[in-house]
Amino acid sequence: MNRTGFLKQAGRRLLAAAGMGAAILSAVAAVNTAHALPQMNLPGINAAILSSGQAGPTPAWLAFCKQMPDECTFDPSEAAVIALDQETWRLLGDVNERVNATILPVTDQDHWGVADRWDYPDDGLGDCEDIQILKRRMLIQAGLPRRALRMTVVIDELGAGHAVLMARTDRGDYILDNKRATVLSWQETGYRYVKREGSDGKSWVWLGNQAAPLVTATK
After folding, report:
1. Full-prediction pTM beyond 0.85?
2. CA–CA distance, 88 with 31 (Å, rounded to integer)
3. At what angle do helices 20-33 and 128-141 cross, to 10 degrees?
4. Average pLDDT value for the chain
5. Position 126 confidence tier, pLDDT thresholds 50, 70, 90
6. Please, are residues 197 and 204 in contact by the beta-carbon 8 Å criterion?
7. pLDDT-based confidence at 52, cuts 50/70/90?
8. Which of 44, 58, 78, 164 could serve as 147's disulfide partner, Cβ 3.0–4.6 Å?
């Protein structure tokens, strides 16, 4: 069996063992209704990241939008930021942790035989952007506005391109990342922020290569 076949077989086993679809969404619903859970401290209020003009999206994102146009729709009536309360903060953390634990990270080259492809990790395998778009779909299904959940391109601690999901909230911009189980403010990630989907249209926006201070590996 070649490497791609082995990875896909491993992903299917992982997916089946985790019962990802119904099980994770049921867990998300439980987060929304589990009033008996202990209270979680909300993060402090942090400054939102500043954008600096329009940016061109990646070709793989354009191909993804052509294949799944509903995933790239823009609804100006939606809230541009999330009102962050304890229930929503718990939801963000739960979805981030559960998806990270369920999807086996692989490169697009190993998975699909191409350099860059955006798609849902329905076979249990995916790279950084695939994992983040799954998180976004789950958060939207849980009731959060798509407009406030923005795919974002960064330069990671190794100097490589990386995709994260930015949740824009009234307490600042928070990052869901397949490299960390913890949801962090953008300032805590140690990344350099290049561009993200815009909140006021389909175009992406430049983030000016803004740097965040590096955090320890334990976070």
Report:
1. no
2. 9
3. 50
4. 84
5. very high
6. yes
7. confident
8. 78
Task: Tell me how long the chain is.
Answer: 219
SS3 8: helix
Q: d(Cα 167, Cα 146) in Å, to the nearest integer? A: 9
Query: Two tokens at 13?
Result: 């086993």
pLDDT value at residue 146: 95
User: Hunting for tokens 């089946």 — which residue is that?
Assistant: 16
Count how many Cα atoms sit within 13 Å of the Cα of residue 103 in the half-sphere of its side chain: 32
Q: What is the pLDDT of residue 55?
A: 94
The class that CATH gives domain 3-211 is alpha beta
Q: Distance (Å, rounded) from C-alpha 181 to C-alpha 164?
A: 13
Give the domain ranges of the chain.
Answer: 3-211
Residue entry with tokens 């979680």: 40
Helix, strand, coil fractions of the chain, as percent rounded to 5: 40, 20, 40
Contacts 24+ apart (CB under 8 A), 8-13: 8/111, 8/123, 8/125, 10/104, 10/124, 10/125, 11/103, 11/104, 11/106, 11/121, 11/123, 11/124, 11/125, 12/123, 12/124, 13/124
- Angstrom CA distances, 167 to 16, 158, 189, 196, stand at 29, 23, 14, 11
Q: What is the pLDDT of residue 7?
A: 52
Q: Given a cut of 90, is residue 136 above it in pLDDT?
A: yes
To which H or E segment does residue 33 belong? Answer: helix 20-33
Distance of CA 51 to the CA centre of its chain: 19
Instruction: Flag whether pLDDT at 215 surpasses 90.
Output: no
